[in-house]
């Protein structure tokens, strides 16, 4: 949800329909609600509702359609336009109304709280060229939680905010919106992220959202950890096949200590591979796997199951492909 033009359909088009960011300029306004069912990791079905943000639709979501839109919600992803002149006024008022509706429609919800995200949510370096991504209230760092639906708040279009003030803008926004939410009586957690369709921050935030929806993340992580140690790999990352969102990752901390690894490497890989796959499909040469070798490391990105891709990074390149092949039946 979010006000009209904040970028909801653009995100959906890029992540779930593999469209290019530039093509989102041609998107029209969403009428009422566009719901899509996305098959995810085989057995899972993600029901994604893109709620049109024009005032008349917002009013309707909050009144006549309130029980349809807000009942049995697992996660609400609310998008704010960072450039809006009404960010902390009318935009926030609508957000607070949505929180109220969410609380009213899910009064006795006992949904589990989010597990720690597989991707680090730490702040980027001040020299970074893309939007800051942080999260705090509600994920164990301070916000109150009542076990209800999780609310992700995306301060979007951060590419339009000067790089040197992105971090502070997000922090001030988070503090102010959290304060207003508490004052209005909302007791649940809020998780804030800065995003833009023009860089990998979009993938970072959505990887966190998606991994939060996964029911068996901890078990998957423990299997990946075993694979990491059995194959003497330095890092293993699991991606969902269509969206290329990061589902989980494990890293050999001793290897990570030796080298300065980019803390945004996972979402950067998501962005690059997605663009590369799109290029491959344009020349009718479907993407199957990718191998990169450097003097110190080798990386192989290959299909693991019909729904996932695995990236294995290791110092010893010879056995990576064989290890992935041997691991397939185990993860099937
Ligand atoms: P409604 O359907 O009316 O609710 O709007 P919406 O929230 O779905 O907005 P939509 O995705 O249609 O995006 C509106 C415009 O914002 C498009 O021209 C997008 O290209 C642009 N846009 C989306 N995300 C970003 C972003 O991260 N940065 C910038 N600069 N523009 C963006």
UniProtKB/TrEMBL annotation:
Gene3D superfamilies: 3.30.450.190, P-loop containing nucleotide triphosphate hydrolases. Residues 105-143 are annotated as: Disordered. GO terms for biological process: cellular response to starvation; negative regulation of autophagy; positive regulation of TORC1 signaling. One of its GO terms (molecular function) is GTP binding. InterPro entries: Gtr1_RagA, P-loop_NTPase. Keywords: GTP-binding, Nucleotide-binding. Residues 119-138 have a biased composition (Low complexity). One of its GO terms (cellular component) is fungal-type vacuole membrane. Pfam families: Gtr1_RagA. SUPFAM superfamilies: P-loop containing nucleoside triphosphate hydrolases. Belongs to the GTR/RAG GTP-binding protein family. Component of the GSE complex. GTPase involved in activation of the TORC1 signaling pathway, which promotes growth and represses autophagy in nutrient-rich conditions. This is GTP-binding protein. It comes from Rhodotorula graminis (strain WP1).
